[in-house]
Amino acid sequence: MAHDTTHAEHAGPKKRIWQVFIILSLLTILEVGLGILKPDFLVHNDLVSLSYLNWIFIVLTIVKAYYIVWAFMHMEHESPSLRRVVVWSGIFLISYLIAILLIEGSYIQEVYTDGYITWDF
Amino acid sequence: MEATTVAKTGTEGQTWGGGEEKPLKASYGKLMMWFFISSDALTFSGFLAAYGFSRFKFIEEWPIADEVFNHFPFLHGVDAPMYYVALMTFILIFSSVTMVLAVDAGHEMKKDKVVTYMALTILGGVIFLGSQAWEWKNFIQGEYGAVETRSGKIIQFVDADGDRIALDEFATASPKDRTQHLAKNGIWFSSESSLNPMALEDVKRGFEANENLRVRTMQITEEGEKEILTREESLLKLNTSGVGIIEGASLSQNEYGAPLFGGFFFFITGFHGFHVLSGVLILIIVFFNVLVGTYEKRGSYEMVEKVGLYWHFIDLVWVFVFTFFYLV
Prior knowledge:
By secondary structure, chain A is mainly alpha-helical. Chain A has helices spanning 11-37, 40-43, 52-72, 80-114; strands at 46-47, 50-51. Chain A has 2 domains: 1-78; 79-121. Chain B folds into 2 domains: 44-142 and 260-327, Cytochrome c oxidase, subunit III, four-helix bundle (Four Helix Bundle (Hemerythrin (Met), subunit A), Up-down Bundle), CATH 1.20.120; 146-177 and 196-247, no CATH class. Chain B is built from 10 helices and 5 strands. Chain B is elongated and about 90 Å long. A 5-stranded antiparallel sheet of chain B has the order 4-3-2-1-5, covered by helices on one side. Chains A and B meet through helix 1, helix 3 and helix 4 of A and helix 1, helix 3 and helix 10 of B.
Protein backbone atom coordinates (compact mmCIF):
# COMPACT_ATOMS: atom_id res chain seq x y z
CA MET A 1 0.00 0.00 0.00
CA ALA A 2 3.03 2.24 -0.09
CA HIS A 3 2.71 5.39 -2.12
CA ASP A 4 4.89 4.20 -4.93
CA THR A 5 4.75 5.93 -8.27
CA THR A 6 8.14 4.93 -9.57
CA HIS A 7 7.52 1.19 -9.57
CA ALA A 8 10.93 -0.34 -9.02
CA GLU A 9 9.74 -3.67 -10.38
CA HIS A 10 7.60 -3.45 -13.48
CA ALA A 11 6.12 -6.92 -13.56
CA GLY A 12 3.95 -6.20 -10.48
CA PRO A 13 1.53 -3.55 -11.73
CA LYS A 14 1.08 -5.18 -15.15
CA LYS A 15 0.27 -8.54 -13.63
CA ARG A 16 -2.28 -6.86 -11.37
CA ILE A 17 -3.92 -5.08 -14.34
CA TRP A 18 -4.46 -8.34 -16.25
CA GLN A 19 -5.62 -10.10 -13.10
CA VAL A 20 -8.24 -7.41 -12.51
CA PHE A 21 -9.28 -7.53 -16.17
CA ILE A 22 -9.91 -11.26 -15.87
CA ILE A 23 -11.87 -10.81 -12.64
CA LEU A 24 -14.03 -8.04 -14.18
CA SER A 25 -14.66 -10.12 -17.30
CA LEU A 26 -15.66 -13.20 -15.32
CA LEU A 27 -18.02 -11.16 -13.14
CA THR A 28 -19.63 -9.61 -16.22
CA ILE A 29 -20.05 -13.00 -17.88
CA LEU A 30 -21.60 -14.33 -14.68
CA GLU A 31 -24.01 -11.38 -14.53
CA VAL A 32 -25.08 -11.72 -18.16
CA GLY A 33 -25.41 -15.49 -17.81
CA LEU A 34 -27.66 -15.13 -14.76
CA GLY A 35 -29.60 -12.37 -16.53
CA ILE A 36 -30.33 -14.63 -19.48
CA LEU A 37 -31.03 -17.83 -17.54
CA LYS A 38 -32.97 -16.19 -14.69
CA PRO A 39 -33.05 -19.25 -12.42
CA ASP A 40 -36.53 -19.59 -10.89
CA PHE A 41 -35.19 -20.07 -7.39
CA LEU A 42 -33.35 -16.74 -7.50
CA VAL A 43 -36.17 -14.80 -9.14
CA HIS A 44 -38.99 -15.95 -6.85
CA ASN A 45 -37.32 -15.60 -3.47
CA ASP A 46 -37.08 -12.17 -1.93
CA LEU A 47 -34.84 -10.68 0.67
CA VAL A 48 -35.99 -7.23 1.88
CA SER A 49 -38.37 -6.74 -1.08
CA LEU A 50 -35.69 -7.49 -3.66
CA SER A 51 -35.20 -10.87 -5.33
CA TYR A 52 -32.02 -12.87 -4.68
CA LEU A 53 -31.10 -12.40 -8.33
CA ASN A 54 -31.18 -8.62 -8.03
CA TRP A 55 -29.17 -8.78 -4.83
CA ILE A 56 -26.56 -10.85 -6.65
CA PHE A 57 -26.43 -8.30 -9.47
CA ILE A 58 -26.02 -5.40 -7.06
CA VAL A 59 -23.35 -7.10 -4.97
CA LEU A 60 -21.38 -8.14 -8.07
CA THR A 61 -21.62 -4.59 -9.38
CA ILE A 62 -20.18 -3.22 -6.16
CA VAL A 63 -17.37 -5.80 -6.33
CA LYS A 64 -16.64 -4.64 -9.89
CA ALA A 65 -16.70 -1.02 -8.76
CA TYR A 66 -14.23 -1.89 -6.01
CA TYR A 67 -11.77 -3.42 -8.49
CA ILE A 68 -12.08 -0.52 -10.93
CA VAL A 69 -11.51 2.12 -8.26
CA TRP A 70 -8.83 0.26 -6.31
CA ALA A 71 -6.79 -1.22 -9.16
CA PHE A 72 -7.47 0.90 -12.25
CA MET A 73 -7.81 4.26 -10.51
CA HIS A 74 -4.88 3.37 -8.23
CA MET A 75 -6.89 4.04 -5.09
CA GLU A 76 -4.87 1.33 -3.32
CA HIS A 77 -1.74 3.47 -3.76
CA GLU A 78 -3.30 6.71 -2.50
CA SER A 79 -3.04 7.83 1.11
CA PRO A 80 -5.69 6.44 3.46
CA SER A 81 -7.06 9.95 4.07
CA LEU A 82 -7.75 10.55 0.35
CA ARG A 83 -9.33 7.12 0.10
CA ARG A 84 -11.67 7.88 2.99
CA VAL A 85 -12.58 11.35 1.70
CA VAL A 86 -13.66 9.99 -1.66
CA VAL A 87 -15.15 6.66 -0.69
CA TRP A 88 -16.96 7.38 2.57
CA SER A 89 -18.59 10.66 1.52
CA GLY A 90 -19.87 8.93 -1.58
CA ILE A 91 -21.12 5.88 0.27
CA PHE A 92 -22.96 7.85 2.95
CA LEU A 93 -24.61 10.34 0.59
CA ILE A 94 -25.59 7.73 -1.98
CA SER A 95 -27.04 5.28 0.57
CA TYR A 96 -29.11 8.10 2.06
CA LEU A 97 -30.35 9.21 -1.37
CA ILE A 98 -31.25 5.67 -2.43
CA ALA A 99 -33.00 4.86 0.86
CA ILE A 100 -35.14 8.01 0.74
CA LEU A 101 -36.10 7.71 -2.92
CA LEU A 102 -36.85 4.00 -2.91
CA ILE A 103 -38.95 4.20 0.26
CA GLU A 104 -40.91 7.10 -1.19
CA GLY A 105 -41.25 5.30 -4.52
CA SER A 106 -42.80 2.23 -2.95
CA TYR A 107 -45.11 4.40 -0.83
CA ILE A 108 -46.37 6.15 -3.97
CA GLN A 109 -46.78 2.78 -5.67
CA GLU A 110 -48.94 1.69 -2.73
CA VAL A 111 -51.15 4.75 -3.03
CA TYR A 112 -51.25 4.27 -6.77
CA THR A 113 -52.45 0.66 -6.59
CA ASP A 114 -54.61 0.72 -3.46
CA GLY A 115 -56.16 4.15 -3.84
CA TYR A 116 -59.72 4.73 -4.98
CA ILE A 117 -58.75 6.28 -8.27
CA THR A 118 -58.36 3.97 -11.22
CA TRP A 119 -55.37 4.69 -13.42
CA ASP A 120 -56.08 2.16 -16.10
CA PHE A 121 -59.25 2.88 -18.03
CA MET B 1 10.08 40.97 6.46
CA GLU B 2 9.16 38.16 8.78
CA ALA B 3 5.44 38.12 9.40
CA THR B 4 5.47 39.14 13.01
CA THR B 5 1.78 40.05 12.94
CA VAL B 6 0.77 36.44 12.26
CA ALA B 7 0.17 34.55 15.44
CA LYS B 8 2.08 31.34 15.82
CA THR B 9 -0.20 28.45 16.53
CA GLY B 10 2.40 26.11 17.87
CA THR B 11 1.41 23.47 15.35
CA GLU B 12 4.15 24.15 12.83
CA GLY B 13 5.57 20.94 11.53
CA GLN B 14 2.45 18.98 12.39
CA THR B 15 0.17 17.60 9.68
CA TRP B 16 -2.66 19.89 10.75
CA GLY B 17 -0.41 22.92 10.94
CA GLY B 18 -0.42 23.50 7.19
CA GLY B 19 2.87 24.22 5.53
CA GLU B 20 4.72 22.53 2.75
CA GLU B 21 3.18 19.11 2.80
CA LYS B 22 0.64 18.34 0.08
CA PRO B 23 -2.83 17.71 1.43
CA LEU B 24 -3.83 14.05 1.16
CA LYS B 25 -0.39 13.39 -0.36
CA ALA B 26 -1.69 13.90 -3.88
CA SER B 27 -0.81 16.50 -6.47
CA TYR B 28 -3.17 19.42 -7.03
CA GLY B 29 -4.36 18.11 -10.40
CA LYS B 30 -5.12 14.63 -9.20
CA LEU B 31 -6.89 15.94 -6.14
CA MET B 32 -9.09 18.18 -8.25
CA MET B 33 -9.87 15.27 -10.57
CA TRP B 34 -10.94 13.25 -7.54
CA PHE B 35 -13.17 16.11 -6.36
CA PHE B 36 -14.74 16.30 -9.80
CA ILE B 37 -15.25 12.55 -9.90
CA SER B 38 -16.89 12.58 -6.46
CA SER B 39 -19.36 15.26 -7.47
CA ASP B 40 -20.04 13.65 -10.82
CA ALA B 41 -20.60 10.31 -9.07
CA LEU B 42 -23.25 12.00 -6.94
CA THR B 43 -24.90 13.43 -10.08
CA PHE B 44 -25.12 10.00 -11.65
CA SER B 45 -26.36 8.55 -8.36
CA GLY B 46 -29.10 11.15 -8.41
CA PHE B 47 -30.17 10.06 -11.89
CA LEU B 48 -30.03 6.36 -11.09
CA ALA B 49 -31.85 6.86 -7.79
CA ALA B 50 -34.55 8.83 -9.64
CA TYR B 51 -34.79 5.91 -12.04
CA GLY B 52 -35.17 3.60 -9.04
CA PHE B 53 -37.89 5.86 -7.64
CA SER B 54 -39.91 5.77 -10.85
CA ARG B 55 -39.37 2.09 -11.21
CA PHE B 56 -40.60 1.41 -7.68
CA LYS B 57 -43.58 3.63 -8.39
CA PHE B 58 -44.46 1.59 -11.50
CA ILE B 59 -43.04 -1.68 -10.19
CA GLU B 60 -45.91 -3.74 -11.59
CA GLU B 61 -45.81 -2.36 -15.10
CA TRP B 62 -42.20 -1.47 -15.89
CA PRO B 63 -40.89 -2.84 -19.21
CA ILE B 64 -38.75 -6.00 -19.04
CA ALA B 65 -35.28 -5.00 -20.28
CA ASP B 66 -34.55 -8.35 -21.99
CA GLU B 67 -37.48 -7.81 -24.31
CA VAL B 68 -36.48 -4.27 -25.19
CA PHE B 69 -32.76 -4.68 -25.75
CA ASN B 70 -32.57 -7.88 -27.75
CA HIS B 71 -30.84 -6.82 -30.94
CA PHE B 72 -27.43 -7.83 -32.19
CA PRO B 73 -25.73 -6.56 -35.35
CA PHE B 74 -26.30 -8.76 -38.41
CA LEU B 75 -28.70 -10.99 -36.51
CA HIS B 76 -32.05 -9.68 -37.67
CA GLY B 77 -35.06 -11.11 -35.93
CA VAL B 78 -32.93 -13.22 -33.60
CA ASP B 79 -33.77 -12.78 -29.95
CA ALA B 80 -30.42 -11.91 -28.38
CA PRO B 81 -31.16 -10.44 -24.96
CA MET B 82 -28.34 -8.32 -23.60
CA TYR B 83 -25.54 -9.85 -25.67
CA TYR B 84 -24.90 -6.52 -27.30
CA VAL B 85 -24.81 -4.54 -24.07
CA ALA B 86 -22.52 -7.16 -22.61
CA LEU B 87 -20.23 -6.68 -25.60
CA MET B 88 -20.32 -2.91 -25.06
CA THR B 89 -19.39 -3.48 -21.42
CA PHE B 90 -16.40 -5.57 -22.50
CA ILE B 91 -15.29 -2.91 -24.96
CA LEU B 92 -15.38 -0.29 -22.23
CA ILE B 93 -13.62 -2.50 -19.66
CA PHE B 94 -10.95 -3.32 -22.22
CA SER B 95 -10.43 0.35 -23.04
CA SER B 96 -10.00 0.85 -19.30
CA VAL B 97 -7.30 -1.82 -19.32
CA THR B 98 -5.41 -0.16 -22.19
CA MET B 99 -5.78 3.17 -20.37
CA VAL B 100 -4.25 1.81 -17.18
CA LEU B 101 -1.47 0.24 -19.28
CA ALA B 102 -0.84 3.68 -20.80
CA VAL B 103 -0.62 5.19 -17.31
CA ASP B 104 1.78 2.43 -16.30
CA ALA B 105 3.94 3.04 -19.39
CA GLY B 106 3.91 6.74 -18.47
CA HIS B 107 5.36 5.90 -15.07
CA GLU B 108 8.18 4.13 -16.87
CA MET B 109 8.57 7.14 -19.24
CA LYS B 110 8.10 4.93 -22.30
CA LYS B 111 6.60 7.35 -24.81
CA ASP B 112 5.99 4.82 -27.60
CA LYS B 113 4.03 2.52 -25.35
CA VAL B 114 1.95 5.41 -24.00
CA VAL B 115 1.12 6.37 -27.60
CA THR B 116 0.07 2.82 -28.54
CA TYR B 117 -2.08 2.22 -25.50
CA MET B 118 -3.75 5.62 -25.67
CA ALA B 119 -4.57 5.07 -29.34
CA LEU B 120 -6.20 1.74 -28.40
CA THR B 121 -8.15 3.46 -25.63
CA ILE B 122 -9.44 6.11 -28.02
CA LEU B 123 -10.43 3.37 -30.45
CA GLY B 124 -12.34 1.58 -27.70
CA GLY B 125 -14.14 4.79 -26.77
CA VAL B 126 -15.14 5.47 -30.36
CA ILE B 127 -16.43 1.91 -30.82
CA PHE B 128 -18.44 2.25 -27.62
CA LEU B 129 -19.97 5.52 -28.83
CA GLY B 130 -20.89 3.92 -32.15
CA SER B 131 -22.48 0.99 -30.33
CA GLN B 132 -24.50 3.34 -28.20
CA ALA B 133 -25.72 5.18 -31.30
CA TRP B 134 -26.82 1.85 -32.75
CA GLU B 135 -28.58 0.98 -29.51
CA TRP B 136 -30.41 4.31 -29.60
CA LYS B 137 -31.38 3.75 -33.22
CA ASN B 138 -32.99 0.40 -32.37
CA PHE B 139 -34.71 1.88 -29.36
CA ILE B 140 -36.11 4.86 -31.29
CA GLN B 141 -37.15 2.79 -34.27
CA GLY B 142 -38.90 0.12 -32.21
CA GLU B 143 -39.76 -3.31 -33.47
CA TYR B 144 -43.33 -4.36 -32.85
CA GLY B 145 -45.33 -1.21 -32.25
CA ALA B 146 -48.11 -0.86 -29.70
CA VAL B 147 -51.45 0.80 -29.12
CA GLU B 148 -51.85 3.56 -26.59
CA THR B 149 -54.92 3.53 -24.38
CA ARG B 150 -56.97 6.43 -23.07
CA SER B 151 -55.17 6.33 -19.74
CA GLY B 152 -51.75 6.57 -21.39
CA LYS B 153 -50.97 2.87 -20.93
CA ILE B 154 -49.60 0.65 -23.64
CA ILE B 155 -51.08 -2.54 -25.04
CA GLN B 156 -49.01 -4.88 -27.16
CA PHE B 157 -50.02 -7.80 -29.36
CA VAL B 158 -49.10 -11.47 -29.20
CA ASP B 159 -50.11 -14.57 -31.17
CA ALA B 160 -51.61 -17.75 -29.68
CA ASP B 161 -48.19 -18.91 -28.44
CA GLY B 162 -47.58 -15.67 -26.59
CA ASP B 163 -44.92 -14.46 -29.04
CA ARG B 164 -44.88 -10.78 -29.86
CA ILE B 165 -46.30 -9.80 -33.21
CA ALA B 166 -45.71 -6.53 -35.02
CA LEU B 167 -48.57 -4.20 -35.87
CA ASP B 168 -47.89 -4.18 -39.61
CA GLU B 169 -48.01 -7.98 -39.68
CA PHE B 170 -51.74 -8.05 -39.02
CA ALA B 171 -53.06 -4.56 -39.62
CA THR B 172 -55.00 -4.35 -42.85
CA ALA B 173 -54.48 -1.28 -44.94
CA SER B 174 -57.56 0.74 -45.76
CA PRO B 175 -58.04 3.27 -48.53
CA LYS B 176 -57.59 6.79 -47.27
CA ASP B 177 -57.58 10.23 -48.80
CA ARG B 178 -54.10 11.24 -49.55
CA THR B 179 -53.20 14.87 -49.13
CA GLN B 180 -49.88 15.73 -50.54
CA HIS B 181 -47.57 17.69 -48.31
CA LEU B 182 -46.62 20.85 -50.15
CA ALA B 183 -43.95 23.44 -49.56
CA LYS B 184 -46.61 26.10 -48.85
CA ASN B 185 -47.91 24.12 -45.85
CA GLY B 186 -44.66 24.05 -43.97
CA ILE B 187 -41.70 26.27 -43.29
CA TRP B 188 -39.71 24.05 -45.56
CA PHE B 189 -40.43 20.86 -47.35
CA SER B 190 -38.64 18.00 -45.66
CA SER B 191 -40.24 14.75 -46.68
CA GLU B 192 -43.62 13.23 -47.13
CA SER B 193 -44.98 10.61 -44.79
CA SER B 194 -45.32 7.12 -46.21
CA LEU B 195 -48.02 6.61 -48.81
CA ASN B 196 -50.57 4.95 -46.62
CA PRO B 197 -49.72 5.38 -42.93
CA MET B 198 -51.13 2.79 -40.60
CA ALA B 199 -53.98 3.99 -38.43
CA LEU B 200 -55.76 2.64 -35.38
CA GLU B 201 -58.73 1.45 -37.47
CA ASP B 202 -56.41 -0.72 -39.54
CA VAL B 203 -55.03 -2.33 -36.41
CA LYS B 204 -58.52 -2.88 -34.99
CA ARG B 205 -59.78 -4.42 -38.23
CA GLY B 206 -56.74 -6.65 -38.56
CA PHE B 207 -57.07 -7.74 -34.94
CA GLU B 208 -60.73 -8.66 -35.34
CA ALA B 209 -59.99 -10.65 -38.48
CA ASN B 210 -57.26 -12.76 -36.89
CA GLU B 211 -58.63 -15.10 -34.21
CA ASN B 212 -55.20 -16.01 -32.85
CA LEU B 213 -54.25 -12.56 -31.64
CA ARG B 214 -54.29 -11.51 -28.02
CA VAL B 215 -53.57 -8.30 -26.18
CA ARG B 216 -50.66 -8.12 -23.78
CA THR B 217 -50.90 -5.44 -21.10
CA MET B 218 -48.19 -3.67 -19.11
CA GLN B 219 -49.11 -5.54 -15.94
CA ILE B 220 -46.46 -7.93 -14.64
CA THR B 221 -47.84 -11.22 -13.28
CA GLU B 222 -46.61 -13.34 -10.38
CA GLU B 223 -44.36 -15.25 -12.80
CA GLY B 224 -42.60 -12.03 -13.72
CA GLU B 225 -44.10 -11.93 -17.20
CA LYS B 226 -46.49 -9.52 -18.83
CA GLU B 227 -50.18 -10.37 -18.52
CA ILE B 228 -51.92 -11.72 -21.64
CA LEU B 229 -55.68 -11.19 -21.91
CA THR B 230 -58.19 -13.67 -23.28
CA ARG B 231 -59.56 -13.11 -26.79
CA GLU B 232 -62.79 -11.48 -25.50
CA GLU B 233 -61.00 -9.24 -23.04
CA SER B 234 -58.51 -8.35 -25.75
CA LEU B 235 -61.21 -7.22 -28.16
CA LEU B 236 -62.92 -5.22 -25.45
CA LYS B 237 -59.69 -3.58 -24.36
CA LEU B 238 -58.62 -2.63 -27.87
CA ASN B 239 -62.01 -1.36 -28.97
CA THR B 240 -62.95 0.59 -25.87
CA SER B 241 -59.69 2.12 -24.77
CA GLY B 242 -57.33 2.24 -27.74
CA VAL B 243 -56.66 5.80 -28.86
CA GLY B 244 -53.68 5.61 -31.19
CA ILE B 245 -50.70 3.66 -32.33
CA ILE B 246 -47.14 4.10 -31.17
CA GLU B 247 -44.15 2.86 -33.09
CA GLY B 248 -40.73 3.15 -31.51
CA ALA B 249 -39.87 5.67 -28.84
CA SER B 250 -39.77 9.39 -28.31
CA LEU B 251 -39.32 11.46 -25.19
CA SER B 252 -43.04 11.50 -24.47
CA GLN B 253 -44.12 7.96 -25.33
CA ASN B 254 -42.70 4.61 -26.32
CA GLU B 255 -43.96 1.22 -27.43
CA TYR B 256 -42.22 -0.62 -24.62
CA GLY B 257 -44.32 0.51 -21.69
CA ALA B 258 -44.16 3.29 -19.12
CA PRO B 259 -43.36 6.60 -20.90
CA LEU B 260 -40.82 7.37 -18.18
CA PHE B 261 -38.77 4.36 -19.25
CA GLY B 262 -37.89 6.04 -22.55
CA GLY B 263 -37.15 9.34 -20.86
CA PHE B 264 -34.77 7.74 -18.40
CA PHE B 265 -33.12 5.66 -21.11
CA PHE B 266 -32.40 8.73 -23.22
CA PHE B 267 -31.33 10.83 -20.28
CA ILE B 268 -29.09 8.43 -18.39
CA THR B 269 -27.42 6.66 -21.31
CA GLY B 270 -27.27 10.00 -23.11
CA PHE B 271 -25.55 11.71 -20.20
CA HIS B 272 -23.15 8.80 -19.92
CA GLY B 273 -22.55 8.89 -23.68
CA PHE B 274 -21.81 12.61 -23.41
CA HIS B 275 -19.19 11.76 -20.78
CA VAL B 276 -17.68 9.17 -23.12
CA LEU B 277 -17.64 11.71 -25.94
CA SER B 278 -15.90 14.35 -23.85
CA GLY B 279 -13.57 11.64 -22.52
CA VAL B 280 -12.60 10.72 -26.08
CA LEU B 281 -11.98 14.38 -26.93
CA ILE B 282 -9.79 14.91 -23.86
CA LEU B 283 -7.96 11.67 -24.64
CA ILE B 284 -7.29 12.88 -28.19
CA ILE B 285 -5.87 16.18 -26.91
CA VAL B 286 -3.62 14.40 -24.42
CA PHE B 287 -2.68 11.86 -27.11
CA PHE B 288 -1.36 14.64 -29.36
CA ASN B 289 0.48 16.19 -26.42
CA VAL B 290 2.15 12.84 -25.86
CA LEU B 291 3.02 12.61 -29.56
CA VAL B 292 4.71 16.02 -29.67
CA GLY B 293 6.56 15.16 -26.46
CA THR B 294 5.02 17.71 -24.08
CA TYR B 295 5.09 15.31 -21.15
CA GLU B 296 8.48 13.92 -22.10
CA LYS B 297 9.88 17.46 -21.71
CA ARG B 298 7.92 18.01 -18.53
CA GLY B 299 9.45 14.84 -17.14
CA SER B 300 6.14 13.45 -15.94
CA TYR B 301 3.17 11.76 -17.56
CA GLU B 302 0.79 12.83 -14.80
CA MET B 303 -1.64 14.30 -17.33
CA VAL B 304 -2.15 10.81 -18.77
CA GLU B 305 -2.86 9.61 -15.24
CA LYS B 306 -5.47 12.32 -14.72
CA VAL B 307 -7.32 11.68 -17.96
CA GLY B 308 -7.02 8.00 -17.02
CA LEU B 309 -8.86 8.67 -13.77
CA TYR B 310 -11.70 10.28 -15.74
CA TRP B 311 -11.78 7.41 -18.22
CA HIS B 312 -12.00 4.77 -15.49
CA PHE B 313 -14.76 6.77 -13.87
CA ILE B 314 -16.76 6.54 -17.10
CA ASP B 315 -16.25 2.77 -17.02
CA LEU B 316 -17.32 2.74 -13.38
CA VAL B 317 -20.55 4.59 -14.16
CA TRP B 318 -21.27 2.23 -17.05
CA VAL B 319 -20.98 -0.75 -14.73
CA PHE B 320 -23.79 0.72 -12.65
CA VAL B 321 -25.91 1.82 -15.62
CA PHE B 322 -25.53 -1.68 -17.06
CA THR B 323 -26.75 -3.27 -13.84
CA PHE B 324 -29.67 -0.99 -13.17
CA PHE B 325 -30.89 -0.51 -16.72
CA TYR B 326 -30.32 -3.91 -18.24
CA LEU B 327 -30.03 -6.50 -15.49
CA VAL B 328 -32.08 -5.67 -12.41
